Prior knowledge:
Blueprint: E1 13-23, E2 29-39, E3 43-48, E4 57-66, E5 74-79, E6 82-83, E7 85-92, E8 96-104, H1 105-108, E9 115-121, E10 127-137, E11 149-154, E12 163-164, E13 167-171, E14 176-183, E15 191-193, E16 197-199, E17 208-214, E18 217-221, E19 223-225, E20 230-238, E21 244-256, E22 266-268, E23 274-277, E24 285-289, E25 292-294
Antiparallel strand pairs: 1-21, 2-10, 3-9, 4-8, 4-10, 5-6, 5-9, 7-8, 11-20, 12-19, 13-18, 14-17, 14-20, 15-19, 16-17, 22-25, 23-24
Amino acid sequence: SGTFTTSNTISGNVLNLARHEIVPSNSLAYNSAGGAISGTGASASVSFSPGTGSNRMLVVAFSMSSTDTTTDVITDIDYGGINLTQLCTGTNTNNSHLEIWYLLESDLATLSGSNSLAITVGDSQSLVWSGQSLFYENVNQTTPFGSCSTENIQTAAGTTTNHIVTGRIASSSGELTLGVFARDTINSTTVTAVTGTSRGTANSSYPGAVSEQAGGGTLTHGWRLSTNKDTVAVGVAIKPAAATVLTLSGALAKISSTCAASGSGTCTDSSSLLSLTRNNDSSAAILDITKTAGA
């Protein structure tokens, strides 16, 4: 207990404890694969569900190989009739090309059931292309990505038949990094991810592949190819949703008194102003504050 002495009349709160809490967000995570899409012409589509989760994002990694002298690029890409946003591109001079596109929660929330991912490219001459669709959850919806990093590797004749394509990505703890690559001509080349986790579908009939790693520092994504190819790689970090600051409007505790000095100059409250107890075998208070005011 404590004793407080004053010659003034005390009214209102003597102590008011307010508070706010920071509610951490759930961790950024890979949710699921949508569908793999591939084509040898101007357009193709595949249908899949947007799944469930909070703060979702759909990422589509597009890779292309072409023998045409012009670079074929996506002219239209939509999911459930909603246009995706382009994040970054990469091109090797020997006709390998890639693009990364995405769609955020505000659009995904309007979709349910199976929806079509449709891709159209600008030129259908002598090309092979593929698209990998991946869902992530608890993504920062304001700034979902860091900066893209692009790297070209053009292998010369006579070099080793096993080489690594690298995309060096600046990242922080709590982020996830994506690496995407595309190669030129398709000749049943075996593709093996040597860093990170493979995402989507990678096989010898697809001109590209995707891998994922947990963030932290500058990272390299690599793939080993069974034959020499001219390649391009792009890497980028996905950022997690920010923690929520929860402001509570009520007071955590109040100490109040309307005790006024009497003719004798003293006044004693008849009960505790604040008493905190614990719910265990002990009946004693953890904290007990009383007050005696006097002249």
